[in-house]
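**User:** Everyone, produce a chain:

**Assistant:**
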Amino acid sequence: MVYYAYIKNISDDFSSRYVVVFASRAVADEWWRAVSTAANTKYLDSVRRVAPQFFTHDVSKANASSSITDAQVASSFFGKVFFTLLPNRDDGGLSVIPILDFADHVSGNSFFIRAKPSPSEYWYCPGSSTGNVTPNSKVYVSRTERTRFRVRLISERKDIAGTIMIGSDEIAITLTSTNLSIRVSRSSHLIVSKSPEPGLKFSDLTNGFGVVTPLLDNEGQCGNIKELFKTDDGEDWELV
């Protein structure tokens, strides 16, 4: 699904304004990572991410639209992004982009984790609401309960907190109510542990976790929770 953003000239209110079309939201976040860590430091001083769909640039330093043709910035995105220059303000006309309602993937923030195909299903760790959770407790998927988790970069320094997470980042997923993190058991089920799962990537939320048949209650009926496990071909999950 294509993703849109505005870029405004920070120096005035009428020129060098763009609508940007990205191949996907993930591409938009990856482009921003490339720009914000570019070897060409002019872009570091020019481009700012004000909101997920709103950027600014100082064209006297660097024009954001040139980032995809600069080998020191984001030339690898040339086939995934394009910039459309908007008319000057006094010439009239403004393309209105679709505004999306979603959680920004800021490292260190807390989220609920739910299934994209089934938005009523959330990750759930029993006892997490009160902090009454012990190591090796399982994490489930539930239609009636949900748990808030903190998702952060493993390598993030405290002085640069707030990084936008992208697929290749190694992450930790931790309960907000107690210092226990998601790990994968020997049977591939998701449990909580005193240390995070090594090698867990943000992209694993795309299809790295699956569910099994709903657990049966005491009367042999399907309950409201399913077991959650690590896999290479799982469900698509989103942070909300």
